[in-house]
């Protein structure tokens, strides 16, 4: 007859029970740090001339990060909100022909061949906007770093439990 005795079973059980909470806490901190770094990369590199030139700064100001931790895990979301043209810049696309009307005055003002012109409206023929990824390309560039830091977080969590 074979008999096996396991010494320290209670200690192992306690460590295994504590690991999910410790891992979630460590991953939450890492996600906060990584999401903030990703926002900095998008705003400081991609939207400062790397992919798109800064115009009004509205797109850069719209980039936010949110990290949520619950019993199912950690979810980090980085994106743009409130800027209508963010998606077409990220993915590319076609705009339909449309009329441009003045918003703040009675006429549109623009410069053509060095001379200022005025018009009550302009018929825009539509545009084909090429893909200018600033979100997905940034995530792709830091994906190895994210995986490395998550792996380290797992190791650290295990050693602390």
Describe the 3D structure.
The strands form four sheets. A two-stranded antiparallel ribbon has the order 1-2. It has a two-stranded antiparallel ribbon with strand order 3-8. Strands 4-7 form a two-stranded antiparallel ribbon. It has helices at 9-44, 58-61, 86-91, 136-160; strands spanning 63-70, 73-80, 93-95, 98-100, 108-112, 115-119, 122-124, 127-129. It folds into two domains: 14-92 and 130-160, no CATH class; 94-126, no CATH class. A hairpin with a 2-residue loop joins strand 5 and strand 6. It is built from four helices and eight strands; from the N terminus they run H-H-E-E-H-E-E-E-E-E-E-H. It is of the alpha+beta class and 161 residues long. Helix 1 (9-44) runs antiparallel to helix 4.
Helix-strand blueprint:
Elements: H1 9-44, H2 58-61, E1 63-70, E2 73-80, H3 86-91, E3 93-95, E4 98-100, E5 108-112, E6 115-119, E7 122-124, E8 127-129, H4 136-160
Antiparallel strand pairs: 1-2, 3-8, 4-7, 5-6
Helix pairs in contact: 1-4
Q: Oligomeric status of the shown chains?
A: single chain
> How much of the polypeptide forms β-strand, as a percent range?
15-25%
The number of E-state strands comes to 8
Contiguous runs where pLDDT drops below 50 for at least 5 residues: none
Determine the mean pLDDT: 92
